[in-house]
């Protein structure tokens, strides 16, 4: 009896200490597209391609809206709200062609998304 209980507990323990990331479980190909587009937006801003950055931002917002249901399941309402506010600020910064504030906004969005997916 003791051995039969010990084996599943040992398996769970090994899985937990092996360092498996929950982001590997929860991030799908569609979610990865969001991160890819955000990285591409950062590059557009870095190269000061403001018109391309504006269109990229529109695309990111569409992808975010499509993935929002999953974010609600994984994260807290306040986290999703913070990301939406950062999107609004980022749009303003892109319209003003402020590269440093835009890059900072992108980093904040990425951090929030990673914190949601990594639980």
From TrEMBL:
Read off the PROSITE patterns from this record.
Answer: PROKAR_LIPOPROTEIN
Q: Which domain of life is it from?
A: Bacteria
Read off the InterPro entries from this record: DUF4363 (IPR025373)
The protein in question is named DUF4363 family protein
Organism, scientific name: Salipaludibacillus aurantiacus
């Amino acid at each position: 009896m003791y051995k039969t209980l010990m084996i599943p507990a040992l398996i769970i323990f090994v899985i937990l200490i092996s360092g498996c990331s929950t982001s590997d479980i929860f991030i799908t190909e569609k979610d990865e597209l969001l991160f890819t587009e955000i990285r591409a937006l950062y590059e557009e801003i870095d190269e000061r391609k403001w018109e391309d950055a504006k269109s990229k931002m529109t695309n990111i917002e569409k992808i975010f809206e499509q993935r929002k249901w999953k974010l609600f399941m994984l994260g807290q309402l306040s986290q999703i709200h913070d990301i939406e506010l950062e999107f609004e600020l980022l749009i303003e910064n892109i319209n003003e062609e402020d590269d440093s504030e835009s890059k900072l906004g992108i980093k904040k969005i990425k951090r929030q998304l990673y914190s949601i997916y990594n639980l």
